[in-house]
Amino acid sequence: MSHVVKKRKLDKSRQDSLYFDSYSDVTIHEEMIADHVRTNTYRMAILRNSECIRGKVVLDVGAGTGVLSIFCAQAGARKVYAVEACSIAEQAEKIVKQNNMEEKIQVIRGTVETVDLPEKVDVIVSEWMGYALLHESMLNSVLYARDKWLQQPGGVILPNKAELYITPICDPVVEDRLHFWYTVKDQYGVDMSCMSDFATKCIMNSDITVNSVTVEDVLSHPARFAELDLNTVTVEELRSVKGDFTCECFGSAAVNAFCVYFTVTFPCPDKPALVLSTSPFKPETHWKQAVLYLDVPVDVVQDTLVTGEVSMYPSEASARHICIHVDYTIGEQKKQSKTFSIPDWSSEAQI
Amino acid sequence: MSHVVKKRKLDKSRQDSLYFDSYSDVTIHEEMIADHVRTNTYRMAILRNSECIRGKVVLDVGAGTGVLSIFCAQAGARKVYAVEACSIAEQAEKIVKQNNMEEKIQVIRGTVETVDLPEKVDVIVSEWMGYALLHESMLNSVLYARDKWLQQPGGVILPNKAELYITPICDPVVEDRLHFWYTVKDQYGVDMSCMSDFATKCIMNSDITVNSVTVEDVLSHPARFAELDLNTVTVEELRSVKGDFTCECFGSAAVNAFCVYFTVTFPCPDKPALVLSTSPFKPETHWKQAVLYLDVPVDVVQDTLVTGEVSMYPSEASARHICIHVDYTIGEQKKQSKTFSIPDWSSEAQI
């Protein structure tokens, strides 16, 4: 059934408790562990960094079930502090014991902003990325941990770089859904074609939709519009992550949405860096892609320019939720603007 | 991502406004119209009842897009009152005009409890069924309309009978999800088998899950535990719909859930009645089936008896939401009890 969602504000502490509650169910951890691209890339990156991990102290920010902490212990860490605010920390404890790593891995229940570590750390590892990189992400906590607990100079952050991309797409599901209302007459003898305007308003709304975008849907080479260096970026800078983009369309199509996705990069001493990509051109991850629907489809042809600026910032309703504002010009069209946010079911559902 | 949901109470009027809001999006109407079993069965039932519809007055309770009202007009109704409380009524208006039926069909925006009709009606048609028949169903409104507006004697209600069924099943998805944690060691070299207890608690919870149950999952002939005669049933009686069941298992399996589903029946003068079935043995509908997970799987063999009593009643938090309480005995096991409800995301999401 469909769900029309109204906005509601929550005070900060409430937001946090809801946020942490939502990670106490098994499903999300199952989904994250089962995401081979995610888990294998982290595993490979940690093992390839064993030179800078062996004998060193590691902080795992938002450790969840503790799988990254165990990878770090396997890579030879002397000590791993697995900091986790949710009750899933109790499961991490059990898993650490089951893998006989109580000596090396200390699970600490709490937020990284409040816990007290006995020492500075040489390495910070964290899987902090949310939908569209920054939705409900833990990046602020990682930066806090970096500034408070990471040895400087020489401290290592895994991953140490994040990049954001945008590309115009044609979502065929929307095409089909809008066309559906023209097919009702043949099916049932009732003309419902007048519903297509209403359907367009409902479907091509200002929600950030998390969807699997396939290669066939992509209408141009993706354009990188932002890069974050995790060694230097500040919480202040995260309050507005923006950049320009220019895309040249491959050929004739109807643009009905933008696709936004991210990559994160792991440094690998003496080896090429490892990239965890959520690109529609790469194997699917549980992050899929963020889809931003235009109000109406716009026809493009080969080499039609799609240019503009993307700006991502925390929503007023909840600092953990992002808004994405896109100013864009398609071919000869005049400049358009649309602001998108993740529908509140994602937060409502955590209540 | 997964969503752990806490309960929240809403006052009645708030509940109603949320309830009606949720039907103002296109998706649910698309889903209902595209449900061929639903829409074709109603269409056939209405056309086969043209003898009692031709020249008569019809009330469509919760008309939505008005498709059933148009079927009734096509069947020869003199007048159809299409009563709809949501803003989708505006779309129904347009659709009625587009099909040139303004003369015959009057769309009335409001709840059937509050609208005033110019005359009594000969026929009430309504698609009022919710998940597990009664979750967020409009049946109370249909009964209100019956008692206030339906000609007696001789008034016709389409459908005029509803039946509820239950059967033990083995949901293979749950089996796989619980097994997943034993596979992590082979995949990533980390033993996470101790997560399976936590996973069992999270997955086999007391939510009513709306799922497609396949024939292969069903472990016995379904047992009918309740029947509602819409000509006589009262709102009072709906406050507790209950009945016994006895199921004989087909063969060796692990019962991990009960499946509850419903049928509704349309009388057809001089013809066999038409049945709209949501049985797992019949083509899928958008209602799918209601799945109720046991706390732990129970092994059964051929002819193992699964007996008990099912009781369905409105939840305290919201009269529109149902609870399903099941007392059951599997083979030699001692009697067990579990109470299920639809997770609040379904209502939260309507906020």
Helices and strands, with pairings:
The structure is a homodimer of 351-residue chains.
Chain A: H1 12-21, H2 26-34, H3 36-48, H4 50-53, E1 57-61, H5 67-74, E2 79-84, H6 88-98, E3 105-109, E4 123-125, H7 139-149, E5 156-158, E6 161-169, H8 172-188, H9 195-203, E7 208-211, E8 223-229, H10 235-238, E9 241-248, E10 253-266, E11 274-277, E12 289-300, E13 305-314, E14 322-330, E15 336-341, H11 345-348
Parallel strand pairs in A: 1-2, 1-4, 2-3, 4-5
Antiparallel strand pairs in A: 6-8, 6-10, 7-12, 9-13, 10-11, 10-12, 13-14, 14-15
Helix pairs in contact in A: 3-5, 8-9
Structure description:
The structure is a homodimer of 351-residue chains. The first copy, chain A, is α/β, with parallel strands linked by helices. Chain A contains eleven helices and 15 strands. In chain A, 28% of the residues lie in helices and 30% in strands. The longest helix of chain A has 17 residues, at 172-188. In chain A, strands 6, 7, 8, 10, 11 and 12 form a six-stranded antiparallel sheet that branches. In chain A, strands 3-2-1-4-5 form a five-stranded parallel sheet, with helices on both faces. A four-stranded antiparallel sheet of chain A has the order 9-13-14-15, with no helix packed on it. Chain A is elongated and about 70 Å long. Chain A folds into two domains: 12-127, Vaccinia Virus protein VP39 (Rossmann fold, 3-Layer(aba) Sandwich), CATH 3.40.50.150; 162-345, Hnrnp arginine n-methyltransferase1. At the A-B interface, helix 2, helix 3, helix 5, helix 6 and helix 8 of A face helix 2, helix 3, helix 5, helix 6 and helix 8 of B. Chains A, B: This is Protein arginine N-methyltransferase 6. Chains A, B: It is an enzyme of class 2 (transferase).
